[in-house]
Amino acid sequence: MPRHLTPLHKAAADAVATFAGIASTDLKVGSPPNAAMGDLAVGCHSFAKGAEAVAAAQAVVASFQPGSYLTAAVAAGPFVNFRADRAATFRWVIDAALTSSLIPRTLGTGQTVCIDYGSPNISKHLAYHHVRGTTIGHAIAQIHRALGYRVIGINFLGDWGTTHGMLLAAWERWGHEVTTLDITALNGLYVRFRAAMAENPALEAVGRGWFKRLEDGDPVARELWQRFRDVSWAEFADVYDLLGIVYDEVRGESAYEPDLPGILQRLTSAGLLVESEGAQVVELEGEKTPIMLRTKDGTTLYATRDVAAAEYHWREYAFTRLLYVVDRGQALHFRQLKKLLAKMGDEWATRTAHVPYGLVRVGGKKTATRLGNVVLMREVFRIAEDDVRKVIAEHNPALPSATVDEVARQVGIGAVVFANLAPQREKDIDFDIESAVSLDGDSGPYLQYSHARCASIARKAGETVTTLDGVDTALLASDAEWAVARKLLDLPDMVVRAAEACEPHIICHYLLDLAGEFSRWYTAGNGDPAQRVIVDNPAVRRARLALAAAVQAVLRDGLGLLGIAAPDQM
Question: What is the pLDDT of residue 444?
């Protein structure tokens, strides 16, 4: 994925790249160890070593000419430190933020990214631990969309396999006892059958027999299975609606059933499919165990259907990347799948990648007590919403009840989502609902509150700045204001990095840093009235309102990348 440079960063990189005869994007533009040394730093290490790098930095400074964004350059060992034209930089970054063009919106033009995420098993609840993969996948999708990629969000429903045969067998025995056919009833039947199977192992063969009937197209099995699928999707769709998730493709494993005979025949013809203890497998280089594609009963497996799905997505979308956002426990499966696709001659197999994530644990005795009996993901959202409603009542008791309800919903859901996205993706997390809904600390509500505070400033001023018409950015002269601008300038690089690494936590921590810089600037006015945003001088007030509006816009856009709402009042 190509790097993206703001005009300020590009000017610094160009000054060094022109001397070195290399591309600007080959250079890293960072910051000096302290602000007194300059605003930007470019090292000469990438094209020179030791004393040559020091001499190169001095030569760059000797040839430097001030331009639109840079006013001075000094050598510091092998680094070139630049001073920015702050008024010009403020003008560019505020305008880019207000027009939502700070993110490089065309970086992914002409490229397609397929993202397989969520993908629950039908007839089972969406439990609170499912929220992690769903929210990570959605954030990765939103980040890529913001960069201009064509994104295909895929929900690959687990609607095929022996477990569904077990559910059909359970229905045959106890279905007459079900008064309301919903996901709770279906899950109860499955659990009951598994318990019975533990006492009577022969029941496993009954379940397998029902799945064989399903694969063979038995009309009774198919009709029941379709009812179970429809009931399940209705439940899932309600939860996805709460999260604001709309999938571009919803296809179950069952959709690939017609493709499976052809895939097995292709593997057989290529001499890849061999028999092992009655099952059919493919041996893979570097793997201790082969990948199984057909059981000794003659039924297919998840891996068989994943092959068919991958080939379908290549035919349909010719993707640049196919990402599987699935917990790290499935690492072996996706490693073997990639090797199998390559062995089948699918050159695009290198474009597939497993995006693993860690598990969610319940942290703290209080949270464990409150969530111990919670099954539905939606119930966690409800509890968080109730907690947030209390917090809002303490901070803003005058807020109308209808507004409180909407904000509590947005902030409650946002709190749970952020708590799942903020840690590094592969780390396990201890979900603590009290910390998640807090307005203090590194939380989603804190970011939403920072956004609402920006909106409140505009309301108090009676003026909403949407353009730079009539704004003199030269009046933004404090170090606190410059610190905010510098943090705004980091956004494009953060979004590109998050997309490349499929790491939403990069955006989370960037937004926390931005909110921190904004808070330091905003609260500076408590000690010095001259530093307040709303001052008597109309020109200074308008310049500072423009900077606050830029922060608000970036917080809104950044939260949107994470799938989190940005209320104007809290």
Answer: 97
Helix (H) or strand (E) holding 153, with range, is: strand 150-157
Q: What is d(CA 137, CA 562) in angstroms, rounded to the nearest whole number?
A: 10
454: left (phi over 0), alpha (psi -120 to 50) or beta: alpha
- The whole-angstrom separation of Cα 488 and Cα 556 is 13
Instruction: Please name the residues in contact with 439: beta carbons below 8 A apart, sequence gap of 6 or more.
Output: 391, 395, 445, 446, 449, 570
Give, in order, the Cα–Cα distances in Å from 186 to each of 164, 181, 423: 10, 7, 34
For residue 54, give the CATH number of its domain.
Answer: 3.30.1360.70
Q: Give the separation between CA 486 and CA 474, rounded to whole angstroms.
A: 15
In a domain, 161, yes or no: no
Whether this prediction's pTM lies above 0.85 is answered by yes
Residue 77, number of CB atoms within 10 A of its CB = 12
Closest CA to 87 of 547, 560, 568, 563: 547
- Split at pLDDT 50, 70, 90, the class of 374 is low
Question: In this structure, is residue 328 part of a structural domain?
Answer: no
Region of poorest pLDDT, from 122-126, 194-198, 516-520: 122-126
Q: Is position 153 within any domain?
A: no
Residue 3's pLDDT is what? 66
Long-range own/partner contacts, residues 455-462 (CB < 8 A, 24 or more apart): 455/552, 455/568, 455/569, 456/569, 457/522, 457/533, 457/534, 457/545, 457/548, 458/545, 458/548, 458/549, 458/552, 460/534, 461/533, 461/534, 461/541, 461/545
Domain interval for residue 432 = 363-561
Number of domains in the chain: 2
